[in-house]
């Protein structure tokens, strides 16, 4: 043993210089590791986003956030009372739980689908999925059966009972009794599935529906949308009809004349374009179904509709196929904003969206109850509100039985009784709809790299609004994995109590402890959507 130890000692004594160098190297490695660790922690701790909010500079007025009853409400509305009331609470309730968290997302408008009547045709309708067929009020003998669409009517009443007071009726196809082919979809996709001599009858049908609901049901529809996504061919799969611009204009003029004679107060919503670029540019394909702002609101156009009493002073479109990549997301919405500058009397409404596109970040197929879809859609909402200046934002299916990213509430395909579940997307929409109330104005927000493409893709997205009660709503979408601190400029929160509500992988629009310190500095969790409600003291 002693010999061995002696040899070992001799070894180190001979290479003392090497050992000292090794020890020094190890010290430097350890020091670098410590510096990296503390540097990383410091970077995370010190990542501070200074946000300026100026409520004296306002942009568009926000009218509502909504979703539609197509198509599931026709069945779910006939489920047992408790289940359908629970779903209605999720969608419409403005109440709060004991801990301060919202019961539901407080939608401020509701879209009602006026059916074309394909359900009575069954498989002969050419629509394979019975959930996409609808009942119709108009009957073959010309009478009206107002008891039809009872499930949808139940949700109309449920929305009104919970405080919703804005209603939009929309039509995918004219009634099958009026169409060219006796079906609720087009034969060739080339023109409207309605003969010219049926235009007055269609206008009369819309008039009777609106009159009935106002007088006998107590629902006064603010808007009627007679032409849903007129760009597509609609040869089957679900109810729908194409409309060329000249057909649409002629039909709108007839509806306007009938509405004026019958004293209908509902305004006609134009245009419900299938994608927002059909509003702003002339497309190579379907040139006669595009450039619709100029077609319908330029007084020099042969299809000018801007002087009609019944035409709502707004344009409507769907955000499909314009959400990726960030260059396209931004450019298409800037085009909308540019058109609004040219036609300042018009508003823009984003009246339908779900995830149809497939890109490197997300795919429409396979439902997702988690945060990936919620954050993707929150980015779209942010872009529509802050770049396109939309005055309303509407999701597509409030309830969905499909394995697709198209629902707020998901349920099984049971027509009498079934099970349902919420989604992170539901609550993400609630970060906007629950707190930004009708009549709110979007106000100025400024911070480093605001709405730059890189920020839109992976950064923090912040928007702010002033409600009619002078409360201020700040919505922060943190797409980063790490949390961030946002520092509100002093003037934005002085004499305000700050309440925060968080949607992330753990929370569903959960109320957080009230910030009473007036520091203006708030932590935003990674991969989350946080709403700050600033109420005057």
Describe the 3D structure.
The chain has 537 residues and is of the alpha/beta class. The chain has helices at residues 2-14, 16-46, 73-76, 81-92, 150-161, 199-217, 245-262, 277-280, 292-297, 326-342, 371-386, 424-433, 453-458, 490-493, and strands at residues 48-62, 64-68, 109-114, 167-171, 223-225, 267-268, 314-318, 347-352, 392-400, 407-411, 420-421, 440-446, 460-466, 472-478, 484-488, 496-503, 510-511, 521-524, 528-536. Strands 2, 3, 4, 5, 6, 7, 8, 9, 10 and 11 form a 10-stranded mixed sheet that branches. Strands 17-16-19-14-13-12-1-15-18 form a 9-stranded mixed sheet. α7 (245-262) links the parallel β5 and β6 (267-268). α6 (199-217) packs across α7 and α11 (371-386) packs parallel to α12 (424-433). The chain starts with a helix and ends with a strand.
């Amino acid at each position: 043993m002693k010999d061995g130890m002696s040899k070992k000692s001799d070894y180190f004594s001979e290479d003392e210089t090497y050992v000292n160098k090794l020890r020094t190297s190890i010290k430097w490695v350890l020091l670098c590791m410590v510096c990296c660790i503390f540097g990383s922690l410091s970077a995370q701790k010190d990542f501070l986003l200074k946000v300026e909010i100026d409520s004296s500079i306002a942009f568009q007025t926000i009218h509502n956030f909504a979703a539609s009853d197509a198509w599931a409400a026709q069945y779910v509305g006939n489920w047992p009372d408790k289940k359908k009331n629970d779903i209605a609470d999720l969608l419409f309730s403005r109440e709060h739980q004991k801990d301060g968290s919202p019961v539901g997302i407080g939608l401020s408008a509701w879209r009602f689908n006026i059916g074309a009547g394909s359900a009575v045709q069954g498989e002969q309708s050419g629509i394979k999925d019975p959930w996409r067929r609808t009942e119709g009020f108009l009957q073959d003998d010309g009478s009206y059966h107002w008891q039809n669409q009872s499930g949808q009517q139940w949700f109309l009443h449920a929305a009104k009972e919970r405080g919703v007071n804005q209603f939009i009726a929309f039509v995918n196809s004219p009634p099958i009794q009026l169409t060219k082919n006796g079906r609720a979809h087009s034969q060739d996709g080339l023109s409207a599935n309605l003969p010219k001599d049926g235009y007055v009858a269609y206008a009369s049908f819309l008039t009777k529906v609106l009159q009935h609901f106002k007088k006998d049901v107590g629902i006064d529809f603010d808007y009627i949308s007679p032409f849903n996504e007129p760009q597509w061919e609609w040869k089957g799969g679900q109810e729908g009809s194409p409309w060329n611009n000249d057909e649409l204009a002629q039909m709108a003029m007839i509806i306007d004349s009938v509405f004026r004679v019958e004293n209908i107060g509902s305004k006609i919503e134009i245009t419900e374009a299938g994608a927002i670029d059909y509003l702003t540019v002339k497309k190579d394909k379907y040139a006669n179904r595009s450039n619709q702002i100029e077609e319908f609101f330029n007084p020099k156009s042969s299809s000018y509709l801007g002087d009609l009493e019944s035409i709502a002073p707004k344009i409507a479109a769907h955000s499909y196929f314009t959400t990726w990549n960030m260059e396209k997301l931004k450019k298409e919405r800037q085009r909308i904003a540019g058109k609004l500058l040219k036609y300042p009397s018009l508003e823009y409404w984003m009246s339908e969206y779900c995830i149809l596109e497939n890109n490197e970040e997300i795919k429409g197929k396979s439902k997702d109850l988690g945060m990936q879809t919620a954050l993707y859609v929150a980015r779209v909402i942010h872009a529509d509100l802050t770049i396109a200046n939309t005055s309303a934002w509407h999701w597509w299916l409030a309830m969905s039985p499909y394995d697709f990213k198209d629902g707020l509430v998901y349920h099984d395909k049971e027509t009498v009784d079934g099970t349902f579940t919420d989604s992170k997307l539901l609550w993400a929409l609630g970060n906007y709809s629950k707190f930004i109330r009708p009549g709110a104005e979007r106000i100025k927000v400024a911070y480093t790299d605001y709405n730059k493409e890189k920020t839109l893709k992976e950064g923090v997205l912040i928007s702010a609004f002033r409600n009619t009660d002078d409360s201020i709503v700040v919505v922060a979408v943190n797409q980063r994995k790490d949390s961030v601190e946002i520092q509100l400029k002093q003037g934005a929160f002085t004499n305000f109590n700050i309440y925060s509500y968080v949607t992330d992988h753990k929370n569903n629009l959960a109320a957080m402890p009230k910030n009473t310190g007036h520091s203006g500095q708030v932590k935003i969790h990674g991969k989350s959507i946080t709403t700050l409600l600033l109420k005057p003291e």
